[in-house]
């Protein structure tokens, strides 16, 4: 079968399914539900044919998202039990993160013995992170003040959900949270920033010892990093199943109808995130002359994983690998990207500024510009100290609402669509951190898109 014929079959089956759904929804021609389901699965069959011909992991991940959504819609009782498959995928990914960060950072620092560069990358990264996240914060603030999505919402009856609670954190708590007291505990809790700090200090210490003592550990770190990249490749074969199961579970227990609830808030967030991508990240990419098409191709797979699983951590190993393939040195990827997962959460920062004002609007409380700025800057600070807390953004939001005398019930409303919002903000987090690695590499004068990475040499 020729490729163009497969493409034609795919387009034809999708078009027929879409037409039948349109005719039924608008009651132009009532169609039995079983016929609609059959048409949709025929369309999915056409998409699968395209996937077989394309033979790309990224393509299959995207196809699995479509299949997962259809399973969740047609067979919700089955879909809600598929979450175990997505959890297996996430657990396997989490086993990669700590050893990969440790090995790549230690080898990057001690292998080059350029301790001054570590300091340079540190202040450059923090400066870039804070500038970009501050811009994201203001875009979220502007978006919610324009849309006023929270205005006019009434207190719903019978809310039974509970927002996870966490103790209020002082500035001292936030600072102390950065540093590990037990590296095994940090790994077990998924405290990425603490693992980064330990690895940096370990790498610096290793660079300071005699060569005969340094080389065995250095070779171990290099070998471990290569093994973990191969480990990532093996786990990624399970990605379509894990991603599809995650989408199936989301649709199965929430229903496609959730897309029509709180539509204004959802649209506000998605438009604000798109505006951030087009008005901030795209100009940065153009200014530093990032190869846009190569960059988009490189981030397609990590972003699709992040979107489906709502986990930045799940996308981290593949994102690191793709940025090195693109031409960013491993030592820069290993330093900037994990650090960015604590300091450069562009999507989350934008969401928090937007959601906090939404809570005030829903409660009928008018905040002055100064009060709004104080609230969102407080959110930006506290968001850097709650890594590892389930549904962390809601935890931060509820704590800040209480601090500013706002009611918690609007947060219960947000919880209903938080997974859909999380998909978007997590994707933007990954895009922002991928671009940050290129920015720092360009700033250091070490970006080379024609470089043959260690990963490619091994394949």
How would you describe the overall organization of this protein?
- There is one protein chain.
- The protein is mainly α and 459 residues long.
- It has two domains: 3-82, no CATH class; 115-182 and 262-458, Proton glutamate symport protein (Orthogonal Bundle), CATH 1.10.3860.10.
- The chain contains 21 helices and no strands.
- It has helices at residues 3-25, 33-54, 57-74, 76-79, 83-110, 115-147, 171-178, 183-188, 192-208, 211-236, 239-254, 263-287, 292-309, 312-326, 330-343, 346-362, 369-382, 392-403, 409-415, 418-443, 454-458.
Tell me the count of domains.
Answer: 2
Helix content: over 70%
Q: Tell me the number of strands.
A: 0
- The secondary structure category is mainly alpha
Write the layout of secondary structure elements.
Elements (H helix, E strand, L loop, with lengths): L2 H23 L7 H22 L2 H18 L1 H4 L3 H28 L4 H33 L23 H8 L4 H6 L3 H17 L2 H26 L2 H16 L8 H25 L4 H18 L2 H15 L3 H14 L2 H17 L6 H14 L9 H12 L5 H7 L2 H26 L10 H5 L1
Helix pairs in contact: 1-2, 2-3, 3-11, 3-13, 5-9, 5-10, 5-11, 5-14, 5-15, 6-12, 6-15, 6-16, 6-17, 9-15, 12-16, 12-20, 13-14, 13-20, 14-15, 14-20, 15-20, 16-17, 16-18, 16-19, 16-20
Keywords, separated by commas or semicolons:
single chain; 459 residues; mainly alpha; Proton glutamate symport protein; 2 domains; 21 helices; disordered C terminus
